[in-house]
Design a protein that fits this description.
Elements lengths: L7 H17 L11 E11 L6 E8 L16 H5 E8 L2 H8 L6 E3 L5 E4 L1 H6 L3 H9 L8 E5 L4 H7 L8 H15 L7 H9 L5 E8 L1 H6 E2 L2 E2 L4 H7 L20 E10 L2 E6 L1 H11 L4 E7 L7 E16 L8 E15 L11 H25 L9 H4 L5 H5 L3 H6 L2 E12 L14
Parallel strand pairs: 1-4, 1-5, 5-6, 6-7, 14-15
Antiparallel strand pairs: 1-2, 2-3, 7-10, 8-9, 10-11, 12-13, 13-14
Length: about 450
């Protein structure tokens, strides 16, 4: 096919345009990895100076990172993979610019995995002043995790952290968040979800609590964790059940840090802390719970327990009679299943006749814990469970939903909790072991 003379200039122009397009491709804003300093974690605390804050950065040392991972980590190895630097400034942008005066490379936040806030800052001023920059600056990803130190500063967390297995701090963060997701003792939250829930009507958000275990902090000597003698450990432990209260867990050795419990955030400030046990109930109400191991008192033998691996079988059913005059009525039903994991008393509970004994204990305890947690939140006029979501689907207009004044109505509500629980499997044995002399 011949090209007409009038079409020839057009063909040449299009060919040149295509060629120029190919030549112009490429990463013109590229930066070599050797010129970047990757910030892995960020801590924000109230400063001793008025109107200033302490910003703590953990910066990776790429040349010392072992890509294989999975090897044991000692205190000597952690500083080699990252360096901790603290800058006091009026704001996060100012701290970043000041930090650049002492770092040989350009700071890069694309690998930032967690932002930790100190307890004092979270209680007094709140988080919104600093989250604004994290949300606004394109260098920060919205998948960053957010934690709060339960009993101290974020900087303390940076200085004491000694992972048991992972040499690379980002793997420690990912693994830790996956662990608390599985146990239900806290709820991992990323920056995007935190901002979305803060801006949402009729709900208050929560943030996981991290803390330093004082027993293990005492065991840290010369950059190593040296487990204390048994007698001293027995003197150090408290008469508590792990996860029931806000206290630390009784343990020795391992990482001094532990994540258990949640901070309730209202209008950007921490207004309350809830324990690990309460966090599991929170997860049931928010429908973020999947499974976990629960321990209950034996129904017939004193000072003995039985353990159940508890699963969510169906989403909770919540019915709210919101159209009537206050107090509104909230009926909550949980649908759970479980597998027996331990019977300390060695009683023969695994039978159709005795299963209801164990099931009755489980339903009673979970219902009581749920009522107790809801009552605690009602006193504060806060609803971190987002129960208003069950009303939202019944309204035609968003304006009607916004005008609901739900938190005040929730604070006066009458709550009924029902637990539909069934034991499914006894484990690898049906009945406990039997000693011949006791038959």
């Amino acid at each position: 096919m011949k090209i007409k003379s009038s079409s020839l200039p057009k063909a040449i122009f299009l060919s040149l345009l295509l060629l120029l397009t190919l030549l112009n491709t490429g990463c013109w804003d590229r930066r070599e990895l050797e010129s970047l300093a990757f910030v892995l974690t960020l801590g924000i605390d109230q400063s001793a100076i008025d109107n200033q804050y302490d910003f703590t950065f953990r910066i990776a040392v790429p040349g010392n990172l072992d890509p294989r991972g999975g090897k044991g980590t000692s205190a000597e190895e952690m500083p080699d993979t990252s360096k901790v630097v603290t800058v006091t400034a009026r704001s996060l942008p100012e701290a970043i610019s000041l930090l650049r005066t002492s770092i040989e490379r350009s700071l890069d936040f694309r690998h930032l995995r967690v932002v930790i806030f100190g307890e004092e800052l979270a209680y007094k001023e709140g988080l919104l002043f600093h989250i604004d920059h994290l949300e606004r600056d394109p260098h920060f990803r919205r998948t960053i995790y957010v934690w709060i130190n339960k009993f101290g500063t974020a900087r303390d967390v940076f200085l004491i952290n000694m992972p048991v297995l992972e040499a690379f701090v980002t793997r420690y963060i990912e693994g830790t968040n996956e662990s608390i997701r599985e146990t239900g003792y806290a709820r991992p939250i990323i920056l995007h979800d935190l901002v979305a829930e803060t801006e949402e009507h009729h709900v208050d958000t929560v943030i996981p609590l991290i803390c330093i275990n004082p027993i293990i902090e005492e065991e840290k000597k010369d950059g190593k964790i040296v487990p204390m003698p048994t007698e001293k450990y027995r003197e150090s432990v408290k008469d508590i059940i792990g996860g029931e209260q806000m206290e630390h867990i009784n343990r020795s050795g391992g990482n001094p840090l532990e994540i258990i419990g949640l901070a309730v955030i209202q209008e950007g400030k921490m207004i309350e802390q809830i324990s690990g046990w309460e966090s599991r109930v929170y997860s049931l109400l928010r429908d973020s719970y999947r499974y976990g191991t629960w321990t209950f008192e034996d129904p017939e033998v004193e000072n003995k327990t039985f353990a159940v691996e508890l699963y969510r079988s169906r989403p909770p059913r919540v019915e709210i009679d919101w159209q009537k005059e206050d107090p509104v009525t909230i009926d909550i039903t949980f649908f759970l299943e479980g597998n027996v994991r331990d019977i300390q008393s060695l009683e023969k509970y695994i039978s159709p006749e005795t299963y209801p004994l164990l099931e009755g204990v489980v339903t009673k305890v979970i219902a009581e814990q749920t009522i107790e947690l809801i009552s605690k939140m009602q006193e504060l006029e806060t609803d971190p469970f987002y129960l208003a979501r069950f009303i939202r689907t019944q309204m035609l207009y968003k304006q009607e939903y916004i005008a609901l004044d739900w938190k005040k109505r929730f604070a006066q509500a009458e709550v009924n909790v029902t637990v539909d629980f069934n034991l499914r499997r006894p484990g690898l044995v049906i009945q406990p072991m039997v000693i011949p002399e006791q038959e």
